[in-house]
Please model this.
Amino acid sequence: MHLPKKCSAFRVVLSALLLVALLQLLYLSFLSKLHGKQQRHRYSELFGGTAHSEESARKERLRYSLSTGGIFDHSGQYRVYKNLIPSDSTGKPGSNVLTLATHTSMNNLHHLEGLLERWRNPLSVAIFAHGQDVEFATALLYALGVLCPRMRALVDFHLVCLSGEAASFPERDHRHFAGLDDCAAVFSRLEAHGSKYKNYAIGANVSYPNNLLRNVARGGAEAPYILVVDIDTVPAADLHRHFLAMVARRRPAADRVFVLPAFEIRHTRKMPATKAELLQLYQVGEVRPFYEELCPRCQARTNYSQWLNSRVRDPSGGLEVAYTLTWADPWEPFYIGPRSVPLYDESFKQYGFNRISQACELHVAGYQFSVLNSAFLVHRGFKIQGQFHTRKDEENQRNRLLFRSFKEALKTKYPTSSRRC
Model:
């Protein structure tokens, strides 16, 4: 007797469910079209549509840089594309006194995001790419320049590859750009790429030219003072501002470099911004001197005890020299130096003696090493045995022999110097 009413109610419920399903399909279709429109907009930005003259001009500059074929290094083993992606400030007159220079392979480029977030001033980075990574590097560096405003404003990108390889823009092959909606997506792609290989283990018979990269990054810096660091290290907050104030008070001597004590921090910890924060982490064992486990002698000359106990007189964090040291083997400090300091010897590649050789030459050339009272660097993660690539010891031994001949050559290069390494 009630069957017709039940059927009618069932039809109403079924109709409502069908209507909801239809609305959901329409909504999903709308989202899909919206995403497609957004992606086309991003592709228009990346590939220089007519409505985006700045991006078009940027792409044309990149095309021209690539068309030159770069230049070969002195050995003829590497091809260098200087200022492949220049910042907006490159070549413009300004008051910048200090530029940070760094180097990396593609598997560590994702660290650039955190480094620039802390630095927030002009930065020059040289990237080494090999094989398929050359095309990947060209595409992702271009994406960083287009989609990351801070990168575009402050970072000069230089690319280095093997001389037998050449970079080119992916005119038709856009797979590297798929899903790159914004700056965060670019760095997510880079971080995912980062697990490709460990440290210097790039490939068979391929050497990571760390000192060539340091020189390329230095050469791309326009400021009178340069701080050269590894890309997975971070300086103290406001270092740039405090250093500018220090040199404005008194112009440093030309034969003086300013040492930043280097530390390591556990991966899980937030990077300290000030010396006070660093001291707190040091006291509980979350921070320790750089290379403390692998080569404590390499940084011992810094005299961490004296630095940790030296007071910061200016409560605002102003910089001043805490003490001055003469270099001694095997110290390899990180420092801020004038553009006139000797270049890194590009014969040193892969692991071992690449920074100490340059510090040794500074000593023979007559430089003094002044340790700053509140400036520092922190490396992401503890350096421990077993984390390096398999050929580390072999490379270290090769560079040890090279260092011996390098020291002998310094006697000829600086015949009037009484200093020796």
